[in-house]
Amino acid sequence: MAKVGLIGAGSWGTALSKLVCDNGHDVTVWSIMESEIEMLKTAHEHKDKLPGVVLPESICYTTDLKQAISGMDVLVLAVPSPFTRSTSKMMAEYVTNGQKIVNVAKGIEEATLMTLTEIIEEEIPQADVAVLSGPSHAEEVGKGLPTTAVVGAKTKETAEYLQNIFMCNVFRVYISPDILGIELGGSLKNVIALAAGIADGLGYGDNTKAALITRGITEVARLGMAMGGKMETFAGLTGIGDLIVTCASMHSRNRRAGILIGQGKSMQEAMDEVKQIVEGVYSAKAAVGLAQKYGVQLPIIEQVNAVLFDGKDVRLAVEDLMLRDKKIEISSDWK
Q: Which of 111, 159, 177, 278 could serve as 153's disulfide partner, Cβ 3.0–4.6 Å?
């Protein structure tokens, strides 16, 4: 049995707390919000973020960050990506040398173009930082529906240790050394999911969705490989797998926000209606910054940025994508 501290009590942190506790581990959940902790203590359910998922009574809840970190074998950092740096700063003084931190949020920091594990390593250099990602909606994991994910870590020893913490008969975990590729896949698919939602909001069909998914993963892989990620990652669970589920499901807050934008609402109106952090909005500008840094083209992501931040009409954005210069999909030996 391991001692696991969940830092963050949103939908994903709550679902993982149940999963890890059901796996036989000792779980403590931290939130900065006293009202959230009181609700979890009394109701054993996150009525706002994960209604209907009953949590084991053995889970401990606290607003004391030191209590949630000290003596833990594994820390699962599950705060929304915009709060990864600030939370890591608060955690740093309590984290011991070699303590394992698993990032489960998805995003890129706009100001620095850093991935979330890079942020954690910068703020908590003494930690052994890993990532857990994949096509895994919290709503389905909380209900115990069969799900697959990938742990990325610097050493095989850490990856296998974490694999054993999370894996069970309804949550299959693979391992990989490609932390960068896993994080980029998880971050950039949110931007593509915004585009997929916009297309849905405009009333477009399956043909459009298929085009966005296939050309979207091409963009993600193009940038990811330029940065040093592996093509196998973008063709796997944390690439095309995560992209498919996020573009197709109404569990996806990014797709839901995109639908509202496609129906004519502003970015802020869409985020207000979704009532959760829409990670793709925060990663979109960073993705364009990375594309400029590494000299790659991301036409879908660039159009999403134009809609979100420049007020571009969504129908004009689609038209501009369709009327781009003619391209070859696969290079050939034509003479």
A: 159
Which tokens in the block code for residue 98?
A: 């070699």
- Catalytic residue ranges: 189
If one compares 332 and 164, the residue with the highest pLDDT of the two is 164
pLDDT > 70: percent of the chain = 99
Q: Are 254 and 197 in contact (CB under 8 A)?
A: yes
- Determine the Cα angle at 106 with ends 57 and 63, to 5°: 35
Q: For residue 108, list its beta bridge partners.
A: 115
Residue 113 pLDDT > 80: yes
Beta bridge mates, 62? 30
3-state secondary structure the chain: CCEEEEECCCHHHHHHHHHHHHCCCEEEEECCCHHHHHHHHHHCCECCCECCCCCCCCCEEECCHHHHHCCCCEEEECCCHHHHHHHHHHHHHHCCCCCEEEECCCCECCCCCCEHHHHHHHHCCCCEEEEEECCCCHHHHHCCCCEEEEEECCCHHHHHHHHHHHCECCEEEEEECCHHHHHHHHHHHHHHHHHHHHHHHCCCCHHHHHHHHHHHHHHHHHHHHHHCCCHHHHCCHHHHHHHHHHHHCCCCHHHHHHHHHHCCCCHHHHHHHHCCCCHHHHHHHHHHHHHHHHCCCCHHHHHHHHHHHHCCCHHHHHHHHHCCCCCCCCCCCCC
Cα-Cα-Cα-Cα torsion 145, 108, 130, 28, nearest 10 degrees, comes to -60
The rounded distance, in Å, linking the Cα atoms of 167 and 148 is 9
| pLDDT score of 194 more than 80 | yes
Torsion 40-42-45-46 (CA) sign: negative
C-alpha to C-alpha distance for 225 and 240, rounded to whole angstroms: 14
Rounded CA gap, 138 and 141, in Å?
5
